[in-house]
Structures are given as structure tokens and as C-alpha cells.
Amino acid sequence: MNALADPLLSGGVTWAVLLIVLIKVVLAFAVVMIAVMLMVWFERKAISDMQSRIGPQRWGPFGILQTLADGIKLFFKEDIIPAEADRVVFKAAPYLVLIPALVTFSIIPVGGTVTIAGHTVQLQVANPPVGILVMLAMSGLSVYGVMLAGWSSGSKYPLLSSVRASAQMISYEAVLGMTIVTVAMASGSLTTRDIVDAQARGVWHWNLVHLGVVPFVIFLIAITAESNRPPFDVVEAESELVGGYNTEYSSIRFALFFLAEFMNTVTASAMIVTLFLGGPAGWAPHVAYLRWIFPILWFIGKTTALAFTYVWFRGALPRLRYDQVMELGWKRLIPLSLGWLLIVAGFMVKIAYGFAMAAAVIFAGTLLSRAFEIGAQRGPDAVLSPVGDRPVSEENIREYFDDEDDSETPRGEK
Amino acid sequence: MHSSWWLTALLLLPLAGVLGVSLTRSRPERARRVALVSVGVEFALSVVVALLYNAHVAQASTWDFGVRWVVSAPLGLAYDVALDGISLALVLLSTLVALVAMLSDRAPRREPAYLAWQLLALDFTVGAFVAHDLLLFFIFFELVLVPSYFMVAQWGGPSARRAAMKFFLYTFVGSAPALVAVIYLGFLHQHEVGGNLSFNYSALSSTVMTSSQAVWIFVGLALAFAIKAPLWPLHSWSPSTYGEAPVAAGAQLAATLSKLGTYGLLRFALALTPLAVKSVTPVVLVLSVIAIVYGSLVAATSRDLRRLAVFSSVAQMGFITLGIFSGSQIGVTGAVVLMVVHGITTLGLFVLIGALERRRGSARLDDVRGLQGAVPVLSGFVTVVAFATIGVPGLGGFVGEFLILLGAFGVHPAYAAVATLGTVGAAVYWLWAYQRAFHGPLSENATGMADASPTERALLWPVVALVVALGVVPAPLLSRVAPSVQQIVAHVTPTGVSR
Amino acid sequence: MTTLTLPTINYLALAPFLVMAGMALVLLIATALTPSRISTRVATSAAVAAAGSALVITIVQGWQIARHGAQLTAAHSVVMDGFSALATASISSSLIFALLIAHDWEGRERFVGAEYQMLALLATSGAVLMTEANDLAVVFLGLEILSIALYVIIAFNRRRLKSQESSLKYFLLGGFAAAVFMYGAALVYGATGTTNLTSISYFLGANVLVHPGLLWAGGGLMMLAFAFKTQAVPFHFWSPDVYEGAPTPVTGFHASIVWGGAFAAAIRVMVSGLGTQSDTWRPIIWGLIVLSTVVGALFAITQVNAKRLLAYSSVTHSGFIWLGVWAATARGVAASVFYILTYAPTVLGSFAIVALVGGVGDSDHYLVKYRGLARRNPWVGGSLALLLLSQLGVPFTVGFDGKFAVLAASLDAGNVTASVVAMLAAAVAAFAYLRWVASLFAEGDPDVAPLVVPWASRVVIASSVVIVLVFGIWPAPLTHLAQHATLYFQP
Amino acid sequence: MSVPASWYLVLAAVLFGIGVYGFLTKRSVITMLMCVELMLNAVNLTFVTYARTLSDISGQTIVFFVMVVAAAEVTVGLGITVAVFRRRRTTSVDELTEMRG
Amino acid sequence: MLALTTTWPDLLVFITAAALIVVGALGVISLTNPVHSALSLIITLFGVALSFLEQSADFLAAVEIIVYAGAIVVLILFVIMYLGVDRHPHDEVEPLVGQRVFAALGALVTVGGIITLMAKSHWVTGVMSASMNGTSLSSGQGEITQLGQSVFTTYLVAFEVTAALLIIAVLGAVQLARRDRESEVEQ
Which of A208, B151, B205, C123 lies 20 to 30 Å (CA to CA) from residue C33? Predict the structure, then answer.
């Protein structure tokens, strides 16, 4: 494992290197923006198809520029800031949502390496040694945008929605982390490049297969919930919460939220591809000078497939109730991901350990499900026994609830 | 020295009494009987010990009945008891006082707890006197506080609680530096000879130290002892305590507790720090003389017997310290004699106080006239005891004071002279006042007062007899005390004056 | 892939910690898996069993240490020596007492469930860890395990606002102290290049620091945190409030278990780690001693609330224990351990009675409530009187022996002034205890019914009285043990 | 590596100082909690700086533990705050007046 | 880690980090709205993370953001919002006269003293990698690997006992936040 994960920077920083980095950043930004635009269009189109509608079609071929048009429209609308709003935070919140989504994309390897002007360049904006942790950090930070947006609106529904959203995001972050550890363990590295490289040897080495399908499924569910996508979009449940945490937003700020949501979808798809589907890995013909383009195509293809999965979710699945979302996260996914992590770890050390660990996990899981069952029966905790058979008289109870009131004078002196 | 269980028996007996008393909780009369029996046996035992004392040891050692058993080596805690002449005298005094005090106190409702405390106080006092180990002495010395506190606080007069608290704190504060001094001395010894920490008296007395160390140790120890005694500027707890104490407790405290202080001064503060003697003697002597004059005067002007007891004690303590620090064998012997006599006279005083309080509600004498006519026997007892306290010749007090003054004159004539003048002045004053209360026509408020009852007489006669006996034939006491005193004096002043 | 060689671990050294934390886990799992709430009786028995096994383990440890000597284990971050074994034994037995007191309290307050026991076990496991920690990181974690669990059980009684408020105060200040401690540890790390106490000591022994300022700052900050945990003045100000507010069984925790851990860690850090620098830190401790004893005594005498009084009294006692630390000698260490060992049952016994008098609601803690207690309940009142006299330092009680031991140690090391001051302060504090004792024996209100003493409290009170008396008269076994409580490393 | 370690140490000390000042002056429980977090971050920064200076990974490892502790502490602390607030409706320490004396 | 040969980027990073830290910290103690304070705290955390990065502690930088910003401050914000103390900032009256002055003096003296002591000691007196079996931080090896090594060797016990800490945190939070049926009785 290298301390310097990015070969571009190994030779020291020169102007050329700086320029390459700058180009990568600009390029990535542009690509993401375009991808988001396409994603919005894609989703609307696909959903329309599922619902036997036509969807956008006026602007551009197949209505592909519809998103742009919507954006321009929103940009020119009146920007309303509620009177009760905390102005600074209210203005900052949309960016806090957007930036993490954008930053996460920077660690995703979209292709192999190319050589530009004697420098080996990885086709990803950055490849920090902590790699995948950046994604965790960013998903942690994206909570703020949502939370503060709701709070700063100074309105009840957005606040409720944002509390829901942030609770949900934090809960699923734990699941994400646990799955990521499984992946990192298999690859022996945290950098996205190493993770992708470890899967490059064929489909059987993809983490999807290599780790058993379970982590993939968990990750898919978790990241869907993490980005508040359907069927986990309880934060925007129109029937309960008006429009979600961004109810009070209008104009360009609203557009930013919108943008962020779809950017999250794109990023999430790309992240799954990176972690489980081998990233840009795939069959590539020997074509001179163009060999580098196949990984990119593979990447785009896989990402699109996953993006379609998201759309499919939205089209096919009913929205969960909020408590169901939380139960799924805490009672199913976290134990499952933890158990799977242990099993994988066991197998990595020795096959026998793996089976032993599996047995232990199954045993623990049985206990856990029993505990959940009992917990569900027991209902809220009561410290005192029920009123019926209480030997303490009502008067006494009064007395000792009131003991706070006579703080100053000692009772005995009365 | 030979090993023997006599002293241990002496220490265990009152504890057995406590146990017995606590087992008869519900019946005060039975408890009183048990307590009396144990005190009586204790007294008898102490008499036996006195008779056995030094019957079988080489003349060179004054210590007898020694037992040493190390309880905790790292802490230097040891059960180490032995008896020499001085201790013997005081042990006898303690048991006697306890017996008489318990007999005299016939208040109607005396809980068994009170008797138990009395027994404990006796036990701890005896323990302190027989301790042959500085730490053990200190432990007993401290422990006596607990029963004393409870006796005074719970069964004393209206403001007894406050008085007891004052007493406890006064003495406790005093013993704080004393403990430090004790440990410090122990370490000096340990660093010198190595081995485990030990506070054995004989071992400690040969500790080598610089004279400034000696002075500090002396000051630390002496402070505690001086408060307990009480020595003049530190006596202010005593009027309130003795003013409030129940009679038996008062007798026990005043008669024996104060001896713990003077005994400690002599046995430990002085004997363990010979190098300090030179520098501290003048201070102590000045204080003693002041105490004598001040105590005598206040005592002479007070018509309340409790107050009289307190301040005459202050004066007597002055005499005792004067004797102890006179540096002469005669003076020190006198001091020991005076300790015993003071104990007995104080006991007598408190028995009288009890008698008067039963009759008049208080022990005041300043509002009555011509008591001699009404209660001649009681008046007689008062006279004798009072005379003994101011050192009228023929009584025990005189022997002590005389010896002390004799010893002091040889070494520090000036102090002795002042002390003598002080007592003489007080005696004059006292006689004049006495005349008022006892002679002349009987005042109305004293009519109908009953004279001494048979019990009172039975208690007071022995006291008077003892006072007189000690005044006339002090030899049995002196012969036992003198060798021990001589050892201390020889140790303190190796080239010392001995007359 | 790089290979990883795990350090060898002597599980015997960690066994008391593992037993306690393990039992907490077992209770937790049992709570989750049983349909009804676990009865207090079961929870208490389980927790007492764990504490008892920890106690037995320390005996095995002591035997091992006697045969094979003290040893470092787990990459030198844990040490098993006579000191840790004895301190652990003290903590474990204190836990048994504390649990029994809590058992009756839970019955009175009608709490069901094993939460209290779990938290108590976990807190104690932190204290145990502190006694054997040989690395600042482990000390810190032990401290936090102890403190955080303690914050929770202080606020355990949801019906008493006082309880929660005091927990909040304690939490804030405790968090502050923890941060200060860790900053100190960071500076010491910078000064010595390691956080391992043995390594620190070797480093300081092998190198003379020309500029020890960094080390001083670090040590000073750490000491501040220890002073906080041990209620030394001027870092004691939380203690009366917390003592008053915390449920009484938890209050008993403080001066026994928390002190056990905190003093053990302080001694190990100061004597074992920074022992070569004793000239530097001694003046600070000197100040702590003088201030704690005097201020504690002065405030104790003005209190009208039993728990506050005991809080200030423990401030004074803390000063005494610091006397032993000041000495920084084998004797001093032994004396401090002896003091903690004997003070713990004394104070626990006292709190057992305070809890009883507090009654349902745990709120009657004013001294007036104690008037005539010895007449109504002679045994309880007498026991309380004895326990108070022991705290006062009357001979033939362990209180005297403890004071004697620390005084001896500090005088041996030449600390006369602080010793005298401490003794004088103890004499002042005597007033507070005496007043209380006196009121026990005073004529009380005849209408007050005698206390009913449940069996668990009875056991605690009786055993503490027996300990106070037996070891007060015959302290040899304990002093002997304390003498063997030597630190693994002492320069 | 150019920036001297001392700069970071001073920065950490200043951060610690700000935390201390805030802790001592603020009356809101939550703000005080945040000030403790500031102090712990100063500790972390110091450890990391020393880890670099000493080329010793221990300093970094300990930061880990500090973070764990901070997380646990905050959890419990906020729990207590919530519990008190339910009864008292305030988070100001000045209004915690149950105990006096 | 960025292996930069020029010095000015380091300086720039340091200045940025310092500015973030100080501004954030000052914000925490000077803003009256707790939510703003919390946000300000995040700024500080970013500064700290940045300085970790600069000092080649990448992993810790990430963890700092994940744990502190991602969890701790979120939790704080949660509670602020849940309690609703955000909308009514405390009027900052000084309960004790001159408390601020004394606090400022105290903090100044402490910090000044520590800095002076550190400066006098040449900032560090320890020897490089002096620890007995500590893992030394040598460049060229992965920092995360070393961290792992250190956690599972030198600090194995410390690492394992954090489990107890977390159990306490969970148990405590549940115990404290639980509202039992009877607590309704009093209202």
C-alpha cells in the first residue's frame, strides 16, 4: 500500500500538475452537472413510461432540455425568505446540501489512468488515502443542510421534516459505515482506486459476488434511505409534512435542493458501482489510443443501470411509514450488516473461523429477534408497578413527588 | 521486669463490666449493681497490684508487670503496658475515685449507658496510666475524651452540651499537634536505630535529637497535656465543663482526667525530651506561678463549690508543674504526691457538691450564713477538704506543696517565693470568706437543711481519712514513688541536683 | 499485508475488570431477553456475585504477585502489582456494600430492573481499570468509564429534580476536568515522547530535562483533574451539591469507589510515572492538603444537611489521603491505600444509615431528623455514632489508624507543617461530627417511629461497624496488606 | 514540512483557552458542552502535532480514544440535559437552584 | 498527504486552518443563539481537520469530520431543536460581578503560562519515538496501517475497553431519556 495514493502528486507539484488537477475539477463539475440534468430528465421519462405517460418532450430532443428550462424558470422567480427565518442559515442551507454531494463525486474513479504530458493521471478528481471515508464524512455533513434548512425556515412542518430527515440519515449512516468496512476489509485499502483495482480481475472478484450479495443489498437500501429517495422519502411525505424541509424555499434556493437530490442519486449510483460492481472494470478491446475510453463507458453503463434501479424503486414501491424506516435501519440492517461483517472477517482469517463466526452470528441474531419480540410486547417502560397493587398510598406518592418544593426548610423543623 | 497478666486484667475488667451493664439494659438497678461490682473488683485488683508491686523485681528497675505485644508493626502500634511507682499511685487513685464517684451518685434515673461510660472512662484512664508506650498512652489519652464527652453532654446541666463540645474540641485541638509530635519522635527513633516503627517508652527515651527538635516535640506534646491538666492559660474550658458535669462524672474527670495531663507532662513531655528542659523550664515555671496565684485568688473568692474546685485545681496544677519542672527529685516527688492528694480532695469536693446540690439545688455558699450550726458535720467536711486544697499543714495537700516548694526553692527560689506568697494570700482570703458562710447566726434560707446522711458520711470519712493519712504518714506513698521519680530526674538531668 | 502480532495478555490482571463489565453485559442481555423486568433481588445478587468474584480474583492475583512478582501485560499498558490488587479489592468490596445499600433503596423507591446494577458494575469496572492502568490513555478511559456511568446513576432517580440537577453539574465539571486531564496528558506526551507511565519514568530517569516546563505544565494539569475527582479544595465545589443531589446509595460510591480509582491513578501517575519530579509537584499537593483539610473542616461545621456535611467531611479526608501521596514513598503509598481501604466501609456504613433515615423519596437528610435516633434505634444510632467517631479519628477505630498511617508517612518524608495543619483541621471538623453524634443521643420527638432496617442495610451497617472496630483495634492484617501494596515501579 | 510544530501548539493552546473562557462564562448547558468540545479538540490538535514532531503514532491513536470519549460524554450529557429540561424548562445553569448552602 | 516541496502552500493551509479554528471558537463563545454556536463549532472542527491533514493525519481528519461534525454536533443540534431553546437566547447577564473578567484573566494566565512553559522547553522535550514498543511514524508506510498496528498492540486494552464506554453511553442515554408512566402523575 502506498502512502501516496495518487501517482500524479508523487513527483512534487509543478504547474503542469496543478493545471491537470484544475482541469479535472472543472471537468468533473461539468460532468456532474450534465449528469444531473440528464438524471432528472431520465427519471421523469422513465417514470412516465412506467405510468403510461409521455413525460417531458418540448425542449430539445425527447425533452432532454426540460430540466434546463425548469432551472431557468426557477432562477427568475421571486426569492422569498420567511419573516421567521434565521436568514444566514436559511441562505446557507442549500449549499450545505449541495456541496457534500459534489465533493463525494470527486473520489469516484470514472475510468482507468491516462498519461498526459508525461504524468500518469487517474481519472478521478482525487484519490486520498482515506478514500471512502470522504464519502462517509460527506454523507455525515449532508445532514446539516437538511437539518438547518428545516430549522431555519422558522416553520413547523419543515422543522419536523428536517428532524425526521436527519434522524434517518444518521441512522443509515451507521449501516453504510458497516458495509463500507466490509468492502474495505476485502480490498485491504480505503482508497477508491484500490477498491476498484481489487475488483478488476473479473466479475467473480466484484464485491457484489465476492462478499456475498448481502452487503450490496444492504448498501443499496441504506444509500437510498440516506439520500431520502423513495421509498424512504418520508421527509417529503406530502400528506403528512406538506412538502418536506424545503417547503419554505423558493426560486433558485429550491432549485439547489432539487439539484442536490438528483446529484445524490447520481453519486450514490456511482458509489455503488465503485464499491460493488468493479467501477470502470470490464472487458476492453485493444484499440490503440482509445483503450482508456472503455472503462469510462463501462462506468457510465453500470451507473446508468443503477440510476434506473432508483427510478424503478420510485415507480414501483410504496412509501414506508417513518417508524418502519427507522425499524428497518436499526433492527434489521444494522445487525445484519454487523453480522455479515463478522462473518466475512472470519472467513478472511480462516474458513473454520468463518463458519464459527456464522454460527455465532446466527445465534446472536436469534437472541436479538427474541429481544425485539419481547420489547414489542413490553411496551413503554414503567418503573413503578401498576397503580392497582401499589402498597404506597396516593398521599405518599404525592409527598414524594413534591419533595422538590420544600427545598429550603428542613422538614423536621416544622 | 517480668511478664504478667495483672495489668491486662485491670484493663479488661471494666470492659467486662460494660458488657455486663449493656446486657442488663432494661433494669437500671441491676446495671448499677453490675457496674459497682466491677468497679469494686477493679479497685481491689489495683490494691493487690499495689501490694505486689516490685515485690519480685530487681531494685534497679522501677517498671513491673510489663507486657509487650506488637499489634501492627508498620504503624508501630503495640500493646505495651507496665507499671512503675508513679503510675501505680495514679492507677490506685483512679480506681478509688471511680468507686467513690459511682457510689456517691445516686440520682434517680441513671441509665445503664451512663454507668457504661463511667466504666469506660475508668478503663481508658487506667490504660493511659499503665501504658508503657507513647502511642498507646496517646491512644488512651484521646479515648478518654469519648466517655467524658458523653457523660457531660448527656447527663449534665442545662448547657452541658455546649460545655461538653467546648471541652472536646479544646482537648482535641490540643492533641492534634501532639499526635504529630508523637509520630515525629517515633521516626527520629526509627531512623536512628532502624527496624520497625516503635513507640516503646524505654526505647524512645534514649532517642538522640537536637535541642530544637526536642523543643518542638516538647511543645507539641505539652500543649495537649497542658490543656488536659488544665494549665493556666489553657484552662478556660474547665469552668463550664465542671460547672455542667453530673457529679460522678465531674469527680472522675476532675480527679483523674487532669492527672492524665500532668502525668503526661512528667512521664512523656519531660522525660522524652531532656534537651528541651533547659529552654522550656522558665516558661513553664512562669506559667505555673501565675496559675498558682491566679487560681488561688479566684478559688478563694468563689463561694460556689464547683467554681472552687475548678480554680483550686488550676492552682494545684500550677504547683504540680512547678514541682515537675523544678528539676529536683524532691520537687517532682512532691508533684506526684500532690497529684494523688488533689485527686482525693477533688473527689471529696464533688461528693460534697453532690450533697449540697441535693439539698439546695446548687453548690453555692455565698448566700448562706452560719452553716456550722445547722449542718455541723457537712460543714466540717467542707472545711477539711478546703483546707487540704489550700495546703494547710497536717493534711495531704501540705505535704505535696511543701515538697514542691522545698524542691523549687533549691533551684528557682524566686518562683518558689512568689508561689508561696500566692498561697498564703489566698489562704487568708479564703479563711475570711469561710468565716462568713459557716460562722455566725444561721441565715433563713439554710434552715431545714439536713446534715450529712449515713451514706455521705460513709463516703466522706474515708476521703478525709486518706487526706489526713497522706498528710501524716506519706511514707508508703513516697517510698513507692521516689525510685521512679529518681529515674526520671536522673534521666532528665544526668548531673542533676538531688537533695 | 503487514502481519500483526498481538501483545500477550495476562488475563488474570484484567479479570476483575472483565468480570464486572461482563456481568453488566449479562444483565443487559438478560434484561432484553426476559419478558418481565428483572427483579431487584436477582439483579443485586448477580452484581454482588460479580463483585465477590472480583474480590476473589484479587486474592488470586495477590498470591500470584507474591510468587512471581508484579508484572506488566498487554504491551505494558496494564500492570498487576500489589497496589492494583489491593486497590481493586477495596473497590470490589465497596461495590458489594454500595449494591446492598442500593438494594434497599430501590425497594423503597419501588424501582425495578437491573439498570442501576449494570451502571454500578460498569462504573466500578472503570475504577478497577484505573488502579491497574499503566498508560495515560488507559487511565483516561478508566476515568471516563467511571465518570460517565456515574453521571447516569446520579441522575438515576427520575423523580428527584435534585438528582438530575446535581448530575448535570457534575457532568459539566467532570467533562471540563477530563479535557484538562487530557491536555495535561498531551503535554506530558510531548515532554517525554510516550504515554506509558513506565516509559515516562525511564525517560525521566535517563534524561535530565534542562527545560522541564512542558512536563510541569502537563503534570500540573493532570493533577488538577485528579484533585477534581478526589474532591480536593479548590476543586471540591461540586461535591456538596452532588452529594446532596445524588441518590444516597450513589453518594456512598463517591468516597469509596471513585476515590479508589482516582487516588490509585493519581498515585500511579504521580509516583510511578512522574516520581522523579516529586520536588516539582509536591508543593502543589501541599497546597491541596492544607486547603482541603482546612476548608473541608470549616465548611463541615456549618452544615445542617447530613449529606452535605459528609461531603465536606470527605473533602477533609481527601486532604489526608493526599498526605500519603505527598510522601511519594512506599510507606506513603501504603498509607494512602490503607486510608482508602478503611475509609470506604466507614463512609459506606454511614451512608447506609443516611439512606435509611432519608426514607421514601430519599429526601429527609437534615440533621434534625437524626435527633434521638440512638434512643429510637439504639443499634442504628450507636453504629452511626461509632462510624462518625471513626471519621473523627478516635482511637480504636480505623479512622484513627488511617490518620495515623498517613501522618506517619508524611512526617517520615518530612512534611511537618501540612501534617500539623491537617490534624488541627481534623480537630475542627470534630465539631461537626460531635454535634451530629450528640443529636443522635438527644431526646427526640417521641412521635417518630423507629426505623425499620431491611436486611441488606443491616448487613452493610453491621459489617462496617465490625470492620471499623476490629481493624481499629487490630489493624495488623490491613497494614500488612497495605505494606505489600507496592507499586510496580517506583523511582 | 515547513510550518513549525510550535505554531500548531500555540494554536491548540489558544483554542483550549477559548474553550476554558467560554466554559467559565457561559450559562447555557449546551454551550458549555460545546466549550468542552473545543477543549478536547485542542487536546487532539496537540496530540497530533506531537505525533508528527516525535514521529510516533501513539499521539494519533490517542486522538481516537479522545473522540470516542467525547462522543460518549456528549450522549450522556445531552441525555441529562433533556431530563432536566423536561422538569425545569431551562438549560441555564444559573437556574439550577435546587441546592443551596 | 500532499508531498509539497514548496513552503507557501503549507503556510497557506496553516493560516486557513488557524483562521477557521479561531473564528469558529470565538463564534462558539460569542454567538447567543445556540444553533449558531453549534455551526460555529463545525467551522472549528473543519479547521482542526485541516490542520490534521496538514500534519499527515489524514485518517484522523476524516474521522474528526465523521465523528465530531457528523455525529456529535448533529446530536447537539438535535437536542437544541428538540428542547426549543434555540429561539430564545439567554440574556447573558453576569451572575457574578466581574466573572467574565476573572474568567478571561484565568484563561489568559493558563494559556499564557502553558505557552511560555512550552516555549521555554523548546516546545518538545521528548525523544523521537521513545516509547517502549510504540509504533514509530515513519513516512513511506501507510499511516492507517500504522494506526491499526498501534491500536491493536500498544493500545489494545484501551481499545477494547472503549466498548464499555459505548455500552454506558447507550445504556445511560436510554435510562436518562426514558419517561416512565408515573412521571405523568406529577403533571
Answer: C123
Domain-embedded: residue B262: no
* Residue B233 within any structural domain of the chain: no
Q: How far is C365 from chain E (nearest CA, A)?
A: 23
Total domains, chain B: 1
CA distances B448 to B373, B443, D73, Å, are: 11, 11, 82
What is the C-alpha separation between D22 and D19, in angstroms, rounded?
5
* Residue D28, helix vs strand vs coil: strand
Q: What is the pLDDT of residues B255-297, one digit of tens each?
A: 888 888 888 888 888 888 888 888 888 888 888 888 888 888 8
Residues in chain A with CB shorter than 8 Å from the CB of D99 are: 407
Q: Read off the pLDDT of residues B61-83 as tens digits, 9 standing for 90 and up.
A: 677 777 788 877 778 888 888 88
Cell numbers that stand for E109 in this block: 494566565
Query: Which of E118, E164, E176 has the CB atom closest to C152's CB atom?
Result: E176
In a domain, B115, yes or no: no
CATH class of the domain at D5-91: mainly alpha
Mean pLDDT for chain D? 84
Contacting partners of chain C (3+ CB pairs under 8 A):
A, B, D, E
The structural domains of chain A, with segments of one domain joined by +, span: 68-111+120-330
Neighbours of chain D (3+ CB pairs under 8 A): A, C, E
Q: Average of pLDDT values for A365-381?
A: 81
Contacts of D22 in chain E (CB under 8 A): 25, 28-29
**Which chain C residue has its CA at the smallest distance from A370's CA?**
C33
Give kind and range of the element (H or E) at residue B67: strand B64-72
For chain D, the structural domain boundaries read 5-91
Chain C residues contacting D via beta carbons under 8 Å: 136-137, 140-141, 144, 148, 151-152, 155, 158, 161-162, 164-169, 171-172, 175-176, 178-180, 182-183, 185-187, 189-190, 193-195, 240-241, 244-245, 303-305, 308
Q: Do D83 and E176 touch (CB under 8 A)?
A: yes
Contact C187 D46 (CB under 8 A): yes
What's the pLDDT score for residue B240?
Answer: 81
Write the pLDDT tens digit of every residue in A12-22. Answer: 667 778 888 88
Question: How far is the C-alpha of B118 from the C-alpha of B352, rounded, in Å?
Answer: 19
Query: Are C6 and E148 an interchain contact pair (Cβ–Cβ within 8 Å)?
Result: no
Pick the closest to residue B125 from B139, B115, B114 (CA basis). Answer: B139
Query: HSE of C285 in the Cβ direction (CA atoms, 13 Å)?
Result: 30
**Do you know the residue count of chain B?**
499
Shortest distance, CA E137 to any CA of chain C (angstroms): 12
Q: What is the mean pLDDT of residues B406-412?
A: 82
Q: Are strands C78-80 and A113-116 parallel, antiparallel or unpaired?
A: unpaired
- Tens-digit pLDDT profile for chain E (187 aa)? 344 445 677 788 889 999 999 999 999 988 888 888 999 999 999 999 999 988 888 888 988 999 898 889 988 988 888 777 665 555 555 556 677 788 888 888 888 888 888 888 777 777 665 444 445 555 544 678 888 888 888 899 999 999 999 999 988 988 887 765 444 333 3
Secondary structure (3-state) at E182: helix
Report pLDDT for B15.
Answer: 86
**SS3 breakdown of chain E: % helix, strand, coil, rounded to 5?**
70, 0, 30
Q: Which domain holds residue B326?
A: 279-499
Q: Give ipTM to 2 decimals.
A: 0.86
Q: List, as ranges, residues 83-122 from C with C-beta within 8 Å of A.
A: 110-113
Domain locations along chain C: 11-483
Whole-angstrom Cα distance, residue C119 to residue E170?
11
Task: Please give the grid coordinates belonging to residue A84.
Answer: 421567521
Question: B180-194 pLDDT, tens per residue?
Answer: 888 888 888 888 887
| pLDDT range class, residue C226, cuts 50, 70, 90 | very high
In this complex, which of E128, E162, E171 lies closest to C118 when CB atoms are compared?
E171
> Is B187 part of any domain?
no
